[in-house]
Amino acid sequence: MSATTDSECSVQETISFADVCAEWHKTFERAQRFNRFLTTDAKIAQTPKQLVWTLNKAKLYRYVSPVPANERKPVPLLMVFAIMNRPHVLDLRPGHSFVEYMLAEGYDLFLLDWGAPGPEDQQMQFDDYALEYLPRVVRKVKALSGSAEFSMLGWCLGALISTLYAALRPNEGLKNLILLTAPLDFSDKTQGGFTRWSSDPAFNADMIVEKFGNVPGEMIDSGAKMLKPVENYVGSYTMLWDNLDNDAATEAWHAMNTWVRDIIPMAGNAYKQLINDFYKENRLMEDALVIRGEPVHLSDIRASLLNVIAESDHITPPCQSERIMDMVSSGDKEVLRVRGGHIGIMAGRGAEKSTWPHIESWLASRSA
């Protein structure tokens, strides 16, 4: 066995040091790329649209259709998102956009963006959204489209507001109602972190609003993330690091993170009403809710109904969306159960192959 010479050791040490430097440089470049995704915004909500109506902070947009007017569906579709998030998730990025998908299928598409409430909007509540804003929006949609009928798609709290409108104004032309992850029934206090937290007597929404006025978006966002802390605070970033060399995966992550970080407050009175009247007392399902002096009866809903439920939804568990099917008077109603979570069923990787086509095919046959 021959001895190793000093010169051979020197070569080995030099190569080893070069390898270490190369690996360090590679890791540094990956860290820079990782940081860029965390601290910059992706381009989202890029589908061309026109501003056609405003009221206070709210804006109504009509998307520019690639389909000739005489080939479009005659019944327009109005999309209503939640009041504490931007609606951009419906048009996340080119090639992965529900808006883009529905436009290609020939829908005359409208989007209601509630905007971010200022301190002067603290008194706003669901009464205003359902009976002040939505009726005006509907009139504008019908006037611009030339149709006496319309379809409405509500997501999350947008689904709650859409449900209130559908029950209170059943004769105003609403033909089809699509509810996505609709938080309506809070009778089961063991399901869903928000329901458990808010049912605790120590949870006082009035004190929160007295302290903050409008409820900070950061507070609501933190609460949602704490429902799955490991996944939200660790798993998401681990997934990004592991996929830094996958352009498609990082592009999708960057777009979603851009939307998630763009958080807005919730009007103070709307928050109190949500916690006290809905979460704590379940007035809508108990047929005891009154909006601006008008009782809200789910049995007054007669529009065709598609109820989309996310089976793994930890924000709006399935039990909060199911019972409405037994309470409406709609002769045409269907439940669509989709594998996935609160956002993933519409913005996840499989949405364009599962959720979107089902919604579109259901709506197409009812939009003639």
UniProtKB/TrEMBL annotation:
GO terms for molecular function: acyltransferase activity. Its EC number is 2.3.1.-. It is an enzyme of class 2 (transferase). The keyword Hydrolase does not apply. InterPro entries: AB_hydrolase_1, AB_hydrolase_fold, PHA/PHB_synthase. Pfam families: Abhydrolase_1. Residues 103-346 form the AB hydrolase-1 domain. Keywords: Acyltransferase, Transferase. This is Poly-beta-hydroxybutyrate polymerase. It comes from Aeoliella mucimassa.
